[in-house]
Amino acid sequence: METKIVEDMELDEIRALFASATKLTISGKEEKTLEGEGLERFKRFLEIWLLRSGASAKALLAGRRASEITPEEKESIIVELAKMSIADDSRAEELSEGPFVKRQRETLDKMRKCYEESGSWHKVYTTEVYTDSGFCAEVFIDFVERNTGENVRDTIHLLALTGLTGETDTMEGFEKTMRQARESRYERTLARALDEGAKYKDLLEIDPKDFGFSGDTISDFDEMSFKQGFVRLAIACWADLMESSVIRPDLRAVADNLEAPFKEIWAATNFI
User: Fold this and answer.
1) How far apart are CA 77 and CA 71, in angstroms?
2) Distances (CA, A) of 194 to 21, 127, 187, 189
3) Given 58, 92, 126, which residue is the final one in a domain?
4) Residue at 65 is within a domain
5) Which domain holds residue 131?
6) Of 152, 182, 212, which residue is a domain's last?
């Protein structure tokens, strides 16, 4: 018997299947049970995956409404959705704690071990901080703050706290590290806000000055365009709008989901 697939079925029917789920067990290389915050993180991930791969997800319903599916079928479909989304997107690999948290912890441990063995900020900086890595810059500043108990205000303050000198890097190099750390923190905060369900207007309320960007830095642009650049980048990465993406989501669906002007989503596609 041929199964009829209704391609224009509302994704709300899919969402209705997993919205009330309180626990999800996925079998793969190893069995994972998601609940609590881990499950909520997965639901947020699944939401954006649905925007990109809605047609594949709709096929599982075979033209039926969520209310027409039996409890046994519902559980099976939820697990199948999970398998499809995980196979389709590497960002789901660390559902229990999030990829940044795991990578941050590992990098902090490496920096801590290096500092304990050498007692040298110079050694930590030259071996663990990479020139073009915003992630490493952010984790290094985080490590300095954890180790000294002070928030690093600017480059001069960083040098005062660590004793780093021109033998380690140029002033331009230290300033680049500070800039990259601020950019990484700002970008990651925007990304986390999107994962937690923030809308476009919420992203614009996140103030870059809270991440150490000075008025002088922002005045190189006007304040709105400075924010918009970071917000567009965050949306492009979150919704997989990059040119290199094999499958892009429906732009109108992304705009509706974020309650954003369509022109901003379109601009995000040209940002990377």
Assistant:
1) 10
2) 21, 33, 11, 9
3) 92
4) yes
5) 99-182
6) 182
Helix axes 155-162, 134-148, angle to 10 degrees: 50
DSSP secondary-structure letter at 81?
H
Structure token digits, residue 117: 């063995």
The yes-or-no verdict on residue 52 having pLDDT over 50 is yes
Dihedral (C-alpha) 173, 175, 178, 181: value to the nearest 10 degrees? -50
- How many domains, in total, are found in the chain? 3
pLDDT in tens, 202-234: 999 999 989 988 765 654 455 668 888 899 999
Residue in the structure block whose two tokens are 């915003």: 134
Q: Show the tokens assigned to 58.
A: 């709709």
Given a contact cutoff of 8 angstroms between Cβ atoms, the answer to whether 85 and 106 are in contact is no
The verdict on residue 3 lying in a domain is: no
Contact residues for 21 (Cβ-Cβ < 8 A; gap 6+): 39, 43, 78
Tokens matching residue 257: 């989901």
Same domain, 109 and 143: yes
Tens of pLDDT along 91-105? 444 444 456 677 888
Would 215 be classed as within a structural domain? yes
- DSSP lists the bridge partners of residue 34 as 24
- Which of 185-191's residues contact partners 24+ apart within 8 Å by CB, and which partners? 185/138, 185/211, 186/211, 186/213, 186/230, 187/134, 187/230, 187/233, 187/234, 188/100, 188/138, 190/230, 190/231, 190/234, 191/234, 191/237, 191/238
Residue type (1 letter), 96: S
What DSSP character marks residue 22?
Answer: -
Residues 36 and 109 in one domain: no
What's the longest Cα–Cα distance across the chain? 75
**Both tokens assigned to 50:** 């649905």
Any domain includes 249: yes
pLDDT at 167: 87
